[in-house]
Amino acid sequence: MGGFGLPGSMMAAATGGAGGGADEAKLMMELMEQERERLRAAKTRKGQKAQNKRSRADLAEEFSSMRRQAGGFAMEVRRTYINFAYPPSIRTVTDLTPITISELRLETHHTGKVLFLKTFGTPTRITAVQNAVEDEFGDVDRIAVYNTDPLASPDVILPHGAIFAVKEPYYKGTADGGVQIRVDHPSDIVPLQPQDAAVPPALAPRLFELDKPATFFKTEGNAAYAEKHYETAIVAYTNALEACGESEALLRYDIFRNRAMVNLCLKRHERTLDDALAAIIPDGSEAGEKLKELNNKAYFRAGRAAYELGRFSDAESYYLKMSELCPGDADAAKELKRTKLRLQEASAGVYDFAAMSNSVSKKRPHLDHASFTEKVEVRDAGNSGRGLFAKTSIKAGEVILCEKAFSAAFGNEKQSSIYILMNLNTNQISAGKHAMLLFNVVKKMLHSPAEATRFFDLHDGGYDPKLAVADIDGVVAVDTFRAQAIIEQNAFGCPDVRSTKKDESEASGRSRELEESSGVWIMASYMNHACVGNSIRSFIGDMMIIRATKDIVAGQEILQPYRLPGIEHSKVQRDLQEHWGFKCQCAICVAEDSGTAAQRGQRAALNKEVMQLLGEHKARAKSKPTALAVFKGERLMTRLRAAYGTPAFNDVPKVNLAGLGMWLMRARSDPQPKSVITLASGILRDMGFGVAEHGDSVDFDHTHCHVDSIAIDAAMHAAEAHWVLGQMGKSASYVRFARKLYITALGEICGFDERYHK
């Protein structure tokens, strides 16, 4: 199924989910069922007129009180139900028929209508940004806008005294017995200016002067920009452009240039690029000597925007234009140097991973690097939909792709509240930073049609309808329900800093069941699943590194596990079926499904015993299991090997045996070197590696392997044992092998020497 990724960030409510715990998952499921029941009850009022509504004074006091109480806690938990899906409006305000508050009917999407409103209360954020509103006839109500940037002030989203058009409004009852106009798609609410022709006269100030010159609005924009009121500045500059006469060409260029700067501050890079290019003054204009200086600024802003969009060749051309206009310009030289590094990364995959690793931190997880995708392409994958395929041969350990996140939310980033999204459409629950991912993605796409097109091309789990990306009324019509569906299918859990940092935590016993951070990586999302794949991912900040675990030939599909193969084969299959709707047919799964029912039952029972043993008796350096536990483990290994000794398991990784083997090796209080070598090489063979000794060296075959930290640890145990025996060549072979696996699994070598004391 093309476009799938690993939702390590999601709690699968129906199965208990990672990190949530069975009791917590059960509670969440009960809450979702209660919400469904409430919605079913509300549907009985569909088409009715709301009764006993609050007065204007009551609403004003209500929102004033909520604002006073807001922020009373250091960290609030905000639970949001993602209600039953409906599409965003794809019509302009002028294409819709006006409706008033008194004409609204409960539990109804007023298709083909538009509601003009003015806020009169104090905006506040609960789970949505809310405020009190009135229409042109003085009727009042509440409005709630969901899926907005959680870090944006409510005063920016629904400021007091602002005029809005709500397209095809949804009117519904609320949990407190009241009613509200609910906006799930931020693109459905359009801010208006008093002079807009669509605004009802009763909502617009009568003293507004329609003949103010463009310079007046430009001055307003400059003042707003100086105060960092960027949204206000955008409105002012837009008004200035509308007020510009045909004879004010230079002023128009000036305003475009200024608006480009504001859009750059807002990270609306496609808008920035459009404005910056529109600000280029042609030769021969009346700008005279200032032309070079002004165009230099415009090209700088165009270059910055193109750079942030990953269009590095375009960025390079804009910076070269700067160098032509103003030779010796320091900004041009600096940005050109930076851009050339990105071009080298994007074209050849040349990265300084050590420098990348040193530059990342909890406070700086978003890195300045390009994506390298030249070795892969998206193609049809038959019954699996679309997939990612190698365009060239790739050796084990080599980088397949290195991709910067489309969007990522990290555990240490600023967050005023803990959000929990409970999706009634898919039964999925997202918490913390995983919930923030939706808000970040929506924010990014609202002003980026090209980026929205890339994102909405991903697999959405069969969501319907699939609307074409359209820029309407100044923003992209973003279907937030479909966006969440795509995130649930494609988001990857990732460490807060880097994979090697996470590995250090696990080595010291500080592992976590659920990654605190998550993101969407567009190209990586096209990889299809196999429990025993041919690639493995790792992370440095928001950069995902995918390396080959075995040799890959041109034309071969890149495969990776969505769920890591584990002792409980049935649980892995159940998770895949429930979340993605397919049954895995990889080598491991085919082997596990082989044999008689009695044989499968025996393997399942033995694996259950392994889980119980490893859970009850930890094998650590300072805490060894009892001799009796070790004896049980050895007998269990004998029985397990017999159960997995059928031809179906030839050349198939047996991660359960490897896990028990590692436990036995760590459990021995005084292991002998030869015994360690036997156990370690056995673990590697159980992980699918071929191990062959040749004189004083050892060769390793990756053809059927599964790579993870157990294999690295086993190799280093063997290296140490050979060193103790004075077999330096074999020891060096194992160390080289372990270092290669470490880089393959974790992206880079950082932390290897510290972990293994080399």
Automatic annotation (TrEMBL):
Keyword Methyltransferase: no
TPR repeat ranges per the UniProt record: 296-329
SUPFAM superfamilies linked to this entry: SET domain, TPR-like
Region entry Disordered, spans: 40-59
Name assigned to this protein: TPR domain-containing protein
Gene3D superfamilies per the UniProt record, alphabetical: SET domain, Tetratricopeptide repeat domain
Residue span, SET domain: 374-563
InterPro entries noted in UniProt: Gramillin-biosynth_MTr, SET_dom, SET_dom_sf, TPR-like_helical_dom_sf, TPR_rpt
SMART domains named among the record's database cross-references: SET (SM00317), TPR (SM00028)
Domain of life (superkingdom): Eukaryota
Keyword NADP among record annotations: no
Entries under PANTHER family matching the protein: TPR DOMAIN PROTEIN (AFU_ORTHOLOGUE AFUA_5G12710)
Record keywords, A-Z: TPR repeat
Basic residues composition-biased segments: 41-54
